[in-house]
Specification:
Layout (H helix, E strand, L loop, with lengths): L8 E4 L2 H19 L6 H4 L9 E5 L4 H12 L4 E5 L10 H7 L4 E5 L13 H17 L6 E5 L11 H4 L3 E5 L9 E5 L28 H40 L3 E3 L12 E6 L6 H7 L21 H5 L4 H4 L2 E5 L6 H18 L4
Parallel strand pairs: 2-3, 2-4, 4-5, 5-6
Antiparallel strand pairs: 1-7, 6-7, 8-9, 9-10
Helix pairs in contact: 1-3, 4-5, 7-11, 8-11
Length: 360
């Protein structure tokens, strides 16, 4: 499914563990190979004694952002959060490269955003990091490891680690109709790319992730991946068709009141995601959904479910105005979603808006 070798895959409990394992490994590798003050004279490391530094972007999933913020709070690492462009919704490669320091050990950029569906320029960033690493090696600086959280993209877009050029790639089963289990691709596991375990036990998975393997879940993940590998183009085409029809129907029903928050001119996005706002003072996303009789949806990411009526920080970072972001609703279509279901949803939304505005 991802174009890697079987020996380069570690099974985990999910995306959160995979992401934490990448961050832990990058920081631990830097600490063991470059940051020992006592060995500075012996190794002449230009970053000896420095804290490891990581680069990521402001719209990452909480399973990247929160571990990094925790390391900063514990004074274990330093982190730069690069903003995204308000024009494209993407993080820009120039900004990522500009954030790299001598002590940078990891760049982590999601492959596609979970709220807007915007696809990030990961291949370009990886290519430039590889070129930079050649220069850094000549100066005795640590190599920068490249990670992408591909949770949102798998099953919706063709994903190949060779095209992406990454060292780590996070895989999440339930995002492509598999069970709730995860995996981590590591390029040249343990040889080209370091991986340091967070758990210690019976030696399973070559000691990289010990603990008795969840065989049934792994088998389910494998079958889901097999289906994606065989049918991804068909899945993508279907979802894009139904999602585009959804956006056409929303525009036809609500006219100029609709703001499509996930559309950025010239920017590639996932085929399944539609993030929109129906503009009006009483039409906060939660309020509209509470009035819907059949539609089940969200106002943002599941990991932000405790934010109440506060607008999504991802949308605000992408330049969506506060009063528009406050009304946002995120709809996702799937392999089995039909145009008839879209018609039902749009009718449900129309009736919900009418009730809120006292027209029913």
């Amino acid at each position: 499914m991802v174009g890697g070798e079987a020996r380069d895959v570690i099974f985990t409990s999910g995306g959160t563990e995979s992401n934490n394992l990448v961050i832990h490994s990058a920081v631990e590798h830097f600490r063991k190979t470059h940051a020992s003050v006592g060995d500075a004279a012996e190794h002449h490391s230009p970053v000896a004694g420095a804290l490891p530094h990581c680069v990521t972007c402001l719209v990452e999933h909480d399973s990247i952002r929160l571990p990094l913020e925790h390391l900063v709070e514990e004074q274990v690492a330093e982190v730069t959060f690069v903003p995204v462009s308000k024009v494209s919704g993407q993080v820009e490669a120039d900004d990522v490269l500009a954030a790299v320091r001598p002590a940078t050990c990891l760049v982590s950029i999601m492959l596609a955003n979970n709220e807007t569906g915007v696809v990030m320029p990961v291949p370009e960033i990886s290519r430039r990091i590889r070129a930079l690493n050649q220069q850094r090696a000549a100066r005795g600086l640590p190599g920068v490891l490249m990670h992408t959280d591909a949770a949102q993209a798998l099953g919706k877009l063709h994903v190949d680690v060779r095209d992406l050029g990454v060292d780590f790639l996070t895989i999440v089963g339930h995002k492509f109709y598999g069970p709730r289990i995860g995996a981590l691709y590591v390029r040249g596991l343990g040889e080209l790319t370091p991986l340091y375990p967070m758990l210690f036990g019976g030696g399973q998975e070559r000691n990289f992730r010990p603990g008795t393997e969840n065989t049934l879940m792994i088998a389910g993940l494998g079958k889901a991946a097999e289906l994606v590998a065989e049918n991804c183009e068909a899945y993508e085409a279907h979802m894009r068709d139904v999602r585009d029809y959804l956006e056409e129907r929303l525009a036809a029903e609500f006219g100029k009141r609709i703001r499509l928050n996930s559309r950025f001119p010239g920017t590639e996005r996932l085929p399944n995601t539609c993030n929109f706002s129906i503009q009006g003072p009483q039409l906060q996303g939660r309020s509209v959904l509470a009035q819907c009789r059949t539609l089940l949806a969200s106002v943002g990411a599941a990991c932000h479910s405790d934010h109440g009526d506060r607008p999504s920080p991802v949308l605000l970072s992408c330049g969506v105005p506060f009063e528009v972001a406050r009304n946002a609703i995120r709809l996702s279509v799937g392999r089995g979603t039909t145009r008839a279901e879209v018609d039902l949803v749009v009718r449900d939304l129309k009736q919900a808006v009418a009730r809120l505005e006292g027209q029913a």
